[in-house]
Amino acid sequence: MGTTRKIGILGGTFDPIHVGHLVTAEAVRIEYDLEKVLFIPAANPPHKQGQSVTPATHRYIMTVMATYSNPHFYVSSIEMERPGPSYTIDTVRELVREHGASAEFYFITGADAVADLPNWNDVDDLLDLCHFVATTRPGCVSTIDDVIRQLGPKSAKRIHRIDTPELEISSTDIRERVKQGRSIKYIVPESVESYIGKEGLYRA
Ligand code: ATP
Ligand code: MG
To answer: Confidence band (pLDDT; 50, 70, 90) for 1?
Structure first.
C-alpha cells in the first residue's frame, strides 16, 4: 500500500525567477495538495538557442534564494548537471527513477508553455509519466482545448487547467527594466533584487 506522493515540477529559465513563478507554484501546490514543488532551472534551453541566457549558476542561486523560505519548495540542478540541451522527457524519466512508483508528478506550465506541448519531444511518453497543470497567464489565450484535440483522448485525462492569480510579470520585462535602470521592487523577492544588483546582471 503506502500513500502516493504528489510532486510538482516547475521548469523554467528563471532568468530571473519572479513573483509570478512563486505565486503560481504555491497556488498549484495548495489546489493539488502537493507534498513539494521542484523548481528546475534549465541548463541550456532548447527553445532559447541563440538567445543569450545568464549563466546557469546565477539563475540557480537566485532560484534557491527565492524559494528558500517556503518549506515545500525545492530546487533541483538535474538539468544543469546534464550535458547538452535538456528535454523535459529526460528530466521526468530521471525523477521517476529517483522517486519510484509511489510518486505522482504534476508538471506546472503557464498558458504560453502548454500551447507548445505538441512540439515537445516524446510528448506521448511524457503524458504517461506525468500530469500537466496549465495555469493562466495574462496575454496568453488558453489553447488547452486545441492542445488536447491535437494530442488525443489520453491527454484529456492528463492535462488539467487551474485558474491562478494573473500577474503580468515576465523575466523579459524584468531584464528590460534593469537595463533601463527602472525598479524591479516587489516583482522579484528582495534577495533576488539584491543579487541582481550585486552581480551586475542584465545591465546594458
Ligand atoms: P522569459 O520572459 O525569459 O521567457 P518567463 O517570465 O516566461 O521568462 P520562464 O522561466 O520562461 O519565465 O517560465 C517558466 C514557466 O513559468 C513557464 O511555464 C511559464 O509559462 C511560467 N510563468 C512565467 N511567468 C509567469 C506568470 N507571470 N504567471 C504564470 N506563469 C508564469
Ligand atoms: Mg517564458
So the answer is: low
